[in-house]
Amino acid sequence: GAVVSQHPSRVICKSGTSVKIECRSLDFQATTMFWYRQFPKQSLMLMATSNEGSKATYEQGVEKDKFLINHASLTLSTLTVTSAHPEDSSFYICSASYGTGSYDGYTFGSGTRLTVV
Amino acid sequence: KQEVTQIPAALSVPEGENLVLNCSFTDSAIYNLQWFRQDPGKGLTSLLLIQSSQREQTSGRLNASLDKSSGRSTLYIAASQPGDSATYLCAVITSLAGTALIFGKGTTLSVSS
Question: Which residues of B touch A109 (CB under 8 A)?
Fold first, then answer.
């Protein structure tokens, strides 16, 4: 149980285009989902917290107009990278808490490798 | 601000060795600590979750301990195997529901046969 499905796993796009990444909780309802970004050989850096039915909360330094997050249902959150540039190339991972709160741990999607050319 | 540090950054061992990965955090007021494994280019797999009231958790050849007062956790891997080669990430949470994990930079383990 507690599976998060993330798609696509890999995407290559042209500079200036937009890319949407989906994150679905398959067997539980995720009130809150988190989006992380990971550069090579670096740890996961939190980008934003996505709450169902409300606006996402972005971390300092993350452009909310560039990284659009939508969490319209309890099982789906999407991250759209708008007007992508090569510097946006990275590994993006979503996460959700699968229990009644922080006590039960977190599960992660398999990640999306974005390459902007 | 909570900071998580993992030492060493990289570790190479021959197959069969027992090893310890270290994780420290600056704010001892955590709710739980979770160890993950990440294979190259892949997502995270949860290995062990230790809640704040617990001192250790075990799963197979893995044992994780938690000492909140000193801000430390260790992940012990017994009888290491080449398949254990991966990056191991330690993460903590310092608040109730709705707060994200804070990660260390990880320890990259290489087990040679």
Answer: 43
User: How many CB atoms are located within 10 Å of the residue B56 CB?
Assistant: 14
Tokens of A88: 């946006």
Secondary structure (3-state) at B92? strand
What pLDDT, in 10s, does the model give residues A79-94? 999 999 999 999 999 9
How far is B15 from B80, CA to CA, in rounded Å? 5
The sign of the dihedral angle between the CA atoms of A35, A39, A41, A46 is negative
Q: Do residues B54 and B66 lie in contact, with contact meaning Cβ atoms separated by under 8 Å?
A: yes
> What is the amino acid identity at position B4?
V
Closest residue on chain B to A58 (Cα) = B100
Closest CA to A86 of A16, A9, A36, A11: A16
